[in-house]
Amino acid sequence: MLLAATAASMPANAADLPILPLPRSAAPAQGSFRLTAASGMAVPHGDAGARNAANRLGDLLLATRGFRPALASGGAIRFVRARGMAAESYRLDISGKGAVIRASDDAGLLYGAISLWQLATANGDGTVEAVRIDDAPRFAWRGLMLDSARHYQSPEFIMRLIDWMAAHKLNRFHWHLVDDQGWRLEIRKYPKLTEVGAWRTPASAPGAPELPRTGDFYTQDQVRAIVAYAAARAITVVPEIEMPGHALSAIRAYPELGSGVPATPGAESDWGVFPWLYNVDDSTFGFLEDVLTEVMALFPSAYIHVGGDEAVKDQWRQSPAIQARMRALGVANEAALQSWFIHRIETFLNAHGRRLIGWDEILEGGLAPNATVMSWRGIEGAVAAAKLGHDTVLSPAPILYLNHRQGTAATEPPGRGQLITLADVYGFDPAPASLTADQQHHILGVQGNLWTEHARTEARAAWMMFPRASAIAELGWSRAGASDFQGFVGRLLPQLDRLKPLGLEAATSALAPQAEMDVGEGGKARVRIANQIGSEIRYTLDGSAPGSASPLYAGPLDLTVPARLRAKAFRDGRALPGAIDRRIDAADLRSRTAADLHTCTDKLVLNLEDDAPAAGPRATFLTDILNPCWKYEAAAMDGVTRIALDVGQIPFNFQLGADRDTIRFARPATAEGEFEVRVDGCDGRRIATLPLAPAAGNPGLTTLRADLPAMAGRHDLCFTYTANGPDPMWGIAAVRLETAQPEAGR
Fold first, then answer.
1. Sign of the dihedral defined by the CA atoms of residues 534, 512, 463, 135, in that order
2. Most distant pair of Cα atoms in the chain: their distance
3. Active-site residue, 310 included
4. Which of 90, 229, 565, 613 is the most buried (most CB within 10 A)?
5. Burial per residue of 635-661, b for 16 or more beta-carbon CB atoms within 10 angstroms, e otherwise
6. How far apart are CA 300 and CA 296, in angstroms?
7. Considering 310, 380, 536, 672, which one is annotated as catalytic?
8. What is the superkingdom listed in this entry's lineage (predicted)?
9. What's the predicted TM-score (pTM) here?
């Protein structure tokens, strides 16, 4: 069916198109095309890559529009091989007669199909305005890393993730399969790697009920299916087998691989940096070469990732055998020994036609000759590698680490405590200014990483990755400076709509409105509302759902309590995901959740989950584990007579080395310790002591209360607790300042 198009309806440029990532260039044409079940798709005879692209387009249309155009020689959608086009590039020509996708390689044909799908799902009837799009990626490496070692995800989830990546033209799935907490890959020559190393019992606080054993692994048949599934979507799976550190799961299974220091029972349920490293015996290299041989048979990727990060070398220093080996090799120190170790593995990989890639610590002690560096400790590793003539991938923490919080709501899932918003990620520049033009050519691309210590469910993993991964996709594909954040948001919204039928429930952190409230004049509620993208917000106070005609939020609201506030964000008349529906009473104004409190320092801030109950919702505690201390800033104290703390205990399951010794607590006055409340600074006057005895035997939350002296005005409150050591660690889930005797049971 052909529909007339006016000049005003035609896209003016690439930025106006609902395509994410932003195409390189676009030019409007005359007419329009409506994609329907009858449109048909034509591919060159015997062209398996073109047929695959057509099948993928059919899959996407079936999932999102409910129909699949048939393959037909006279189809209105034509896939054409064109010589001489750059890798992964494509041209998409849409006219009143249909659509033609041209590319030289399979990936280009697929990406053209994905862009056509995006255009055809941007409105209700599948009409696409005529346009010519010439598109190609900025970088060759556009990746996501998923940590399956800390928490296992099902093969079905991995395949859904691959679908979401393909919809963004991401092309590298870096699969972190091995770490201290779990060995996830079946290695047939060494079955104990998965029999022993794939399982652990999660840590729980002293005296708390033991949690169920967790773990699992991927069979080689499952891996082959995942690799093939990814390849059909132009995604290369890059496996990571960590060495010489992060090796506890292997050493637990085969202790002879270590340096003679027995693994501490239960250490596999800790987080942090572990001291267990592979030794440097020839037999251990034989084991690693056997493992890598099976890995290479499963993964055709040119790159094999070997980790190389966070290798604490204390056990190497203390091992007479390793020190003797160092002398025999003429290696000056342990850093040089790690370099020798990585170089030996690289030689093995190169002999099998593969390339080694590792985290930026492989620079220390001398970089292996052909190694590629993945820079995670900022961009410095990438800069150093590029200046040495080595290829590099930018994956810097914290900006591209997706395990950081992306919002401040109490409903944000556990993870690292630093706030890394969608706008923060989109604002990252993947081209270090300190590099020359020639050195810039060594930047292969960008990658976002999700470490899953605290993301124990697949739903949380998806939430943490998207939509920040959408921003990474545009950083990797689109030209530098081609768009701004608001333009990106305009493309993101239809993209999120498309991905829902593909099973993605992305985070609403950047889109949903958030309300901050406090005590205002005359006891009213002073309410401020905003969202991260700065869109308009509509609200109601009568209980009705906000709509585009509801009052526009224009500044702080002063509400007489009790009140019911409902609010929703809108952009261009469209309601955005997420909403506020909150009944506000006087007590709410003096209540703060863990997310509302501020940590006193920012040494190592984590948003930690309680260890109980084993099933069902758990509390979260935002805390600096090196200095458990919280502030309730500018608390309105007029009329306050009591304080209530909802507290919980969690295990201190962190491998921190000497940093653990820096954690200091005041001496407790009672066996279980006490929470202390001080006013006007953490060195200020102590105004309350809340003994922890009632909470010590409770694996869940306990409410502690204490009377407060009368105070007027606003004051900063500081919360700490006394203890004989860090295990268990206590966290605050909520603070309430009470102005009257609490109701029974509260």
1. negative
2. 85
3. yes
4. 90
5. bbbebbebbbbbbbbbbbbbbbeeebe
6. 6
7. 310
8. Bacteria
9. 0.95
